[in-house]
Design goal:
Length: 715
């Protein structure tokens, strides 16, 4: 008998161990903290008595279908001869150090009956304990095969209990968490929306093992599918109470044909694992994301004034130029012109028409975009622009001229989402058009400094005239849409590497680590009510670092003070969306000083570590703390969340985290409203030890509903 092969997918602290069985199937045998003695791994499989009997095989590393498997498969293929069965045998594997800290393992599997082969890729970012997994399927048969299911990853976990935290929402209510204990059977999370794919659920989840994890305790896995389209996660608790996780693009209406010699790369699943709670897991994920994934993740960002809520569609060039003065008064870096600046035959004065016709509206902006850029620059601010190039209003010249570029069933009634339709990005001509929208604006206006890229519609009537013409299956559309989008974004990035870009989808309707390879930041939600934003920020912060979370001060909830709104927005990538002139002198002064403060501590937020100190669900006040890498400086944001039962003040201190216990710190209050005096004694000195064991009371109350503290080391 051939000896079984052991494969170690190892990060700094954790390991995933795979092993072949006597049938050459590759099985998961361990996931968790490394064993002290590496020779012990070879002894694991022996401890399990379910080895060998087919109906007991649940832990296969990439489960095929149609042969021995009776569980949810990761792979379903219809072979050239129509046969729907697949078996996968281990052939070989290779481990490569791709760069310092990044190790990649590639495992080859093959069907003994057909020439189709599967490659499993595991890339591990050692220090951050982040795993990236995907699969490549290669058609070696004589003729076309049909991929019916093609998961990115098929994982297996042993534990007493599993708690899944999923997120749901819709426009303006993004990232609402629900946690449940998984029970036998399959829990599925998915999206079938096509373009604004995360409208109801992001491709993101948290899994706690044994018991619900806390910020500092518990085994926890945070995951994100790096794919800006339909996704599906299957969580199957098998009959041994173990968890099979199958994650990837949604196979719904997405059978993919591979011609002879072609291969298919699945989306990548990103996950981070920690046995020390959610806080550590997200700090590691943030570090990974900034260093390896987010576009210019370790770079700079621009503060801005946006005009969406300030004007909606109702503006002209004089009004905009006046608004520039507001940006100047605030001291932000850039003015961002939103929707409504384009289209002439069907002017974009509402969301009913004009989308797709990217010529400057002559009535509103007779002097063109170049004039606005120049005027802004004259005032010492940069200028940026909103586009939504993937979409079209039926009332537009684009739709009239190119109905075949639109995703629509030619003989059926059209259905609209926000009065618009989605362009068919599987079509290379449409890709050229979408790239051209960006390219024209940025070539004609070389000083254009920023782009907000929106995407408001989901896909109805999924049908592509292009795929029809090319004699390709219609079921390629959902996948090819995303591939087409990424091709466009790659071209944008190749030609415009320096332009910061905001990913927007009517708010957070399309956010994932696939898209963030091209974008520097994303619009969290159109809902900017500060209390709602505290909750959203709490949830998003598990997966994304502060540098990408765009947060604007608006009038969405005027019942909150400008200070509260600004303090909340100062936790993300700060911007404003208000008419500055409408603020009182004191409010303007406050905002200006807040922008200066933000500029002084943004490095701590953007590059430091986040500690979620006190959650807004269980306490009347919430607290977030950012700590610089060298622990010399920290910014703590605290907000009163509720007035219920008259517990509307901070009774107890909140324990700080991440400081140096042996250092001495002084605490100072920032973002004070003009003419108010802080209740914080700025002369007191505290040891890091004290602040982390006893804590500090930010003195939250009805008169001090939000408090920003700077904690600075004396040395
Ligand atoms: C949806 C975005 O989320 C808003 O911020 C704004 O840009 C509008 N679209 C414009 O139509």
């Amino acid at each position: 008998m051939t000896p079984q092969t052991l494969i170690f997918i190892e990060s700094q602290d954790y390991t995933m161990v795979l092993q072949t069985d006597w049938n050459k199937r590759l099985r998961h045998i361990y996931f968790g903290e490394k064993l002290v003695q590496s020779s012990d791994y070879a002894l694991i499989a022996k401890q399990f008595r379910y080895n060998g009997v087919n109906e007991d095989v649940f832990n296969v590393a990439y489960t095929p279908s149609g042969t021995w498997n009776i569980a949810e498969p990761a792979l379903q293929i219809q072979h050239t001869d129509g046969n729907p069965s697949t078996e996968l045998h281990y052939v070989q594997h290779k481990v490569q150090q791709l760069q310092e800290n990044v190790l990649q393992t590639v495992i080859d599997l093959v069907d003994p009956l057909y020439e189709t082969s599967v490659r499993l890729f595991f890339k591990v970012y050692q220090k951050e304990n982040v795993f990236e997994q995907w699969t490549n399927i290669q058609n070696g048969e004589k003729g076309a095969i049909l991929l019916k299911k093609y998961a990115s990853a098929n994982l297996y976990f042993r534990s007493h209990d599993f708690y899944l935290t999923q997120y749901h929402g819709t426009w303006a209510t993004e990232m609402q968490p629900v946690t449940q204990r998984l029970t036998k059977g399959i829990k599925m999370l998915d999206s079938k929306l096509g373009a604004r794919a995360n409208l109801y659920a992001p491709p993101t989840f948290m899994l706690s093992f044994d018991e619900k994890s806390t910020e500092e305790t518990g085994k926890v896995l945070l995951a994100n599918l790096a794919w800006s389209g339909n996704f599906r996660f299957d969580f199957e608790v098998d009959r041994y109470d173990n968890l099979r996780l199958i994650a990837g693009a949604n196979p719904y209406n997405s059978e993919y044909q591979l011609k002879e010699g072609e291969s298919f790369e699945t989306p990548h699943l990103i996950f981070v694992y920690s046995e020390n709670g959610k806080g550590e897991a997200s700090r590691n994920l943030h570090q990974w994301a900034r260093k390896y994934r987010i576009y210019d993740g370790e770079g700079e960002r621009l503060t801005l004034l946006n005009n969406w809520e300030a004007t909606y569609f109702d503006f002209d060039e004089n009004k905009l130029v006046q608004l520039f003065d507001g940006a100047k008064k605030l001291g932000v870096d850039l003015f961002l012109l939103d929707d409504g600046w384009f289209a002439n035959k069907y002017p974009r004065n509402s969301d009913f028409m004009g989308l797709g016709d990217w010529q400057t509206n002559r009535k509103k902006l007779p002097s063109g975009l170049g004039y606005l850029v120049k005027e802004a620059n004259k005032k010492g601010i940069e200028f940026g622009i909103w586009i939504e190039p993937e979409m079209v209003n039926p009332k537009s010249e684009l739709y009239e001229n190119h109905p075949d570029w639109v995703i629509r069933q030619p003989d059926r009634r059209e259905y609209y989402y926000r009065n618009q339709l989605v362009l068919d990005l599987s079509n290379p001509e449409v890709q050229d058009h979408v790239f051209g929208v960006f390219d024209t604006i940025f070539t004609e206006n070389p000083k254009m400094a920023y782009c907000k890229w929106d995407c408001n519609s989901i896909v109805y009537n999924s049908y592509s005239a292009y795929l029809e013409k090319e004699n390709l299956p219609q079921t390629h559309l959902y996948v090819d849409y995303v591939k087409g989008l990424y091709k466009v974004l790659q071209r944008v990035r190749a030609k415009y590497p320096k332009v910061p870009m905001m990913l927007c989808s009517g708010g957070g309707g399309r956010v994932d680590y696939g898209a963030l390879q091209y974008f520097t930041e994303f619009w969290v939600s159109d809902n900017t009510a500060p209390i709602d934003r505290v909750f959203m920020h709490w949830e998003y912060s598990h997966f994304y670092p502060a540098i990408v979370l765009c947060a604007h001060v608006t009038n969405w909830d005027k019942s909150a003070s400008i200070k509260y709104r600004t303090d909340v927005a100062s936790m993300g990538k700060l911007g404003f969306d208000i008419v500055v002139e409408e603020l009182s002198d004191k409010e303007q002064q406050f905002c200006r000083e807040a922008v200066q403060n933000y500029d002084s501590f943004k490095d701590v937020l953007w590059k430091g570590d986040l500690y979620r100190l006190q959650n807004p669900y269980d306490y009347p006040f919430a607290s977030f703390q950012f700590v610089s890498v060298d622990k010399s400086r920290s910014i703590v944001f605290s907000y009163l969340i509720t007035n219920r039962f008259e517990i509307n003040y901070s009774i107890e201190p909140v324990r700080f985290k991440g400081l140096d216990a042996s250092q001495k710190y002084r605490i100072r209050e920032l973002n004070l409203f003009p003419n108010t005096i802080s209740s914080i004694d700025e002369s007191a000195v505290y040891s890091g030890d004290y602040l982390m064991k006893i804590g500090f009371n930010p003195d939250i109350g009805l008169e001090r509903k939000s408090v920003v503290l700077e904690v600075k080391s004396l040395s």
